[in-house]
């Protein structure tokens, strides 16, 4: 079980998990919603090739009181009727739950590689069901053979928390044909997880790192890392943490340590890359009525972070063990991390050779924090940071020498107006940046690809009353977005290959007086625009009030 924050946002989730379904709609102190519809999102569906396909049920299990139990484990085998090659493999995760329950973190590992990270919705007494899909074709190198599968969903069931998660996991394999060619994948998938038969993630306390030592192929040409990282406890909503001196003044409402976080990766102790973490909000986070029925961004389908480690390949082809280390920098509470390597090899040479030629990345970011007093007990906190770094290296391959340069610029700004003894916070955070990977072959022209991101979030939260579990009032308004773009260089400009813009807005209220729910209401919306996995333009807007969808519109954006 994830420990909850001592501060008010964590307290809100702790209190509200014990309530029956409270719905979502315009925050109204007089409104009491006791039910809400099944969760819905505006994310585009995963495209399904029109080819022969087979669906395998990889797991069907009820997660009751599993908090101290090992992960569910089994074996997944490619279907005999769809032997491959496959144009796509799609994972489906579906479930139902009713009663009282927390949101829970869940993960799926195949062959030791984490193929899905997600979290669950909080149920109603009447019950809800939901499902999600994910394209897992990049793991085809593992899926070609029978593999161990592990599923972790740590849950608590007792006299108070009664919700059992009834979960099903399937994999659908789509045969390739002349219209849908085999999926392009890395040559090898190498998990850096802690286990192949149990939950593979590692839970880290503040100051800790996760390391895995492996031996890689001697003919590498490309190395990519896929990384997962989520905070827990006070770091579940790390973006509203305040400087420790301020948190110590109001320990019932605020978490300390400040809000700056980054996830650092090292290779044999050398800084190799960083990822700005997305400000995830669980379904019980801030005020649970914010997320009914539309979940926050990243709540159900957590996106991993990609880091290109190819500049280090020349150091990794010596046939010796090498250590990959992941560190949640700035963590003030626990983080759950995991990673997987995707490796390409030289198909015409048994060995490549090379060197790392540049590494300007420091693992000690310059973070600036200021606290400015305002009227009354108002304190305005401003935290900023900027990252600019480059790694570069070369490899001698059967195609000649190839130089790879990775450069990143990242910007961070968080402002937080704290008042009313820590009971009111107005937080605005912006994380944005771009990573450019340039490949310069000995024979041919250099190419550059750019991945840019923008993670805006604003939270206006207020706790006008907080006496105990039976007497409190919580209100909040949240704006949250994830804006991504992938581009390729063309002469003196960039051509966008695909882009997505996912925006969620929510307002919610929840209150109890003498143990009786006196307000439970909210309103939320999600607008997703961008490019689907098939390259089509997609525009989907959903609005909801009082726990039920009022508008669901898919538009022609082409």
TrEMBL record:
Residues 49-358 form the Peptide N-acetyl-beta-D-glucosaminyl asparaginase amidase A N-terminal domain. InterPro entries: PNGase_A, PNGaseA_N. Pfam families: PNGase_A_C (PF25156), PNGaseA (PF12222). Keywords: Signal. It comes from the Bacteria. Residues 1-27 form the signal peptide. This is Peptide N-acetyl-beta-D-glucosaminyl asparaginase amidase A N-terminal domain-containing protein.
């Amino acid at each position: 079980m994830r420990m909850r924050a001592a501060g008010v946002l964590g307290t809100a989730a702790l209190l509200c998990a014990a309530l029956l379904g409270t719905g979502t709609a315009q925050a109204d102190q007089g409104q009491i919603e006791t039910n809400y519809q099944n969760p819905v999102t505006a994310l585009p569906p995963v495209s399904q090739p029109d080819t022969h396909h087979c669906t395998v049920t990889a797991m069907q299990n009820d997660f009751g009181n599993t908090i101290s139990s090992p992960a569910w484990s089994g074996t997944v085998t490619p279907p005999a009727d769809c032997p491959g090659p496959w144009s796509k493999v799609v994972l489906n995760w579906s479930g139902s739950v009713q009663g009282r329950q927390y949101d829970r973190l869940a993960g799926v590992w195949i062959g030791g590689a984490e193929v899905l990270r997600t979290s669950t919705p909080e149920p109603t007494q009447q019950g809800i069901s939901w499902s999600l899909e994910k394209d897992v074709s990049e793991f085809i190198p593992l899926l070609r053979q029978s593999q161990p599968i592990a599923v972790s969903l740590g849950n608590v069931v007792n006299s108070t928390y009664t919700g059992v998660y009834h979960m099903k996991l399937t994999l659908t394999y789509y045969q390739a044909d002349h219209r849908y060619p085999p999926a392009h994948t890395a040559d090898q998938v190498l998990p850096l997880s802690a286990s192949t038969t149990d939950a593979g993630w590692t839970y880290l306390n503040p100051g800790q790192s996760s390391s895995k030592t492996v031996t890689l192929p001697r003919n590498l040409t490309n190395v990519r890392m896929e990384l997962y990282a989520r905070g827990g406890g006070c770091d579940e909503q790390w973006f509203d943490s305040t400087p420790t001196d301020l948190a110590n003044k109001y320990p019932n409402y605020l978490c300390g340590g400040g809000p700056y976080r980054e996830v650092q990766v090292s290779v044999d102790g050398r800084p190799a890359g960083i990822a700005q973490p997305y400000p995830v909000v669980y379904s019980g986070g801030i005020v649970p009525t914010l997320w009914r029925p539309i979940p926050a961004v990243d709540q159900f389908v957590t996106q991993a972070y990609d880091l290109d480690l190819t500049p280090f390949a020349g150091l990794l082809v010596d046939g010796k063990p090498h250590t990959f280390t992941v560190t949640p920098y700035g963590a003030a509470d626990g983080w759950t991390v995991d990673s997987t390597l995707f490796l390409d090899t030289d198909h015409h040479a048994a060995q490549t050779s090379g060197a790392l030629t540049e590494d300007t990345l420091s693992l000690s970011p310059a973070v600036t924090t200021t606290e400015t007093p305002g009227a009354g007990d108002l304190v305005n906190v401003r935290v900023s940071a900027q990252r600019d770094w480059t790694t570069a290296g070369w490899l001698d391959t059967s195609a000649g020498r190839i130089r790879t340069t990775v450069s990143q610029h990242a910007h961070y700004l968080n402002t937080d107006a704290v008042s009313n003894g820590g009971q009111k916070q107005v937080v605005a955070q912006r994380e944005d940046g771009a990573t450019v990977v340039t490949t310069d072959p000995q024979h041919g022209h250099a190419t550059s690809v750019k991945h840019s991101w923008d993670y805006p979030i604003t939270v206006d939260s207020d706790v006008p009353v907080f006496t105990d579990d039976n007497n409190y009032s919580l209100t909040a308004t949240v704006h949250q977005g994830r804006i991504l773009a992938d581009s390729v260089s063309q002469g003196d400009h960039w051509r966008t290959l695909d882009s997505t813009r996912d925006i969620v807005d929510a307002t919610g209220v929840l209150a109890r007086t003498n143990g009786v729910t006196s307000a439970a209401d909210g309103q939320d919306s999600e607008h997703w625009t961008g490019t689907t996995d098939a390259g089509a333009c997609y525009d989907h807007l959903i609005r909801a009030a009082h726990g039920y969808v009022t508008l669901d519109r898919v538009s022609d954006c082409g």
